[in-house]
Write a structure and sequence with these properties.
This is Centromere protein O. Keywords: Centromere, Chromosome, Nucleus. The chain has 7 helices and 8 strands, in the order H-H-H-E-E-E-E-H-H-E-E-E-E-H-H. By secondary structure, it is an alpha+beta fold. It has 3 domains: 102 residues; 77 residues; 84 residues. The strands form 2 sheets. A 4-stranded antiparallel β-sheet has the order 1-2-3-4.
Amino acid sequence: MADAMEEPRKDVLVHLNMLEMKANHLAVKQQEVWQVKVGREEQLNATLQALIIKRDQLKAELKANTSLQNLRTLLDKTNAPCERDVEDMENGSENSQTLLLMARHTQLKDLLHAHHLIGGYNVLLTKGKGVCVSIATAYEGLYLETYNLEINLQCKIRISRHNIPPFIPLETMVKQGNMQTDIRAFLDTLSQYLNAYVGRRQQLHLVKEIHNSVQVMESNALCTILVLMFTVPGEKARAALCTLEYNDHTQCLPTRVLIESEDTALASSPQWKKDQALLLETPVHRALVTLKKKGSIA
């Protein structure tokens, strides 16, 4: 009889235990769901705050860009707007001077971009339908002459006036290049000729200025021929004539170097072959410095 009563009691306890486990499992699940919900809400709130900040930034940038564009328009018209105009545009904002600097900065960037598009040449409008193009020349970081061409743009593009040296083949370049469709290519070629010419001329000037022991025997207006006389040291010092020929008029380096001396073996000597290569690869005034240091010339 007692055993019969114990069996239902065990069943009840087992059932209660299962109910308790289910209840605990359900509580854990609810806690996890709640934590996920809270985390999701926090994430959404954080995203919302970030979007609000981004919106405010975009509004501020839009306002600043609008003010900057208006100020840039005023700057392009007047070139130097007064402070009152700037302050009126910005309603007395403390950032008016900053915006003015930004507007001038963008204007300068646009000018530099336009300058780059036309190849870096300065172009000024002339009376009538024409422009004046200035080509600056330089050598080893030193600015030298500036040459100008006045170009007529009516109907057919043509050069009306210029101060290009007469020995520069300007007419040949006009005929060979198509100024009507690619004037920048023509200007680039002309600039190359002019810079090469002033570079060769500057080298000649530096040879005369730096190297007292080297005598310039001959040169021409285009500086495409240069004959130097120097002394070659040795058991018996002898004079030598060195001729540099610049057959490529768009370059500053010679295309041919010859030497003449009473010592007929000098031209075929290994040392002269090395010196000849140096003169072909290095501007003459610097090559002579190296030759002196090596003892090739006195």
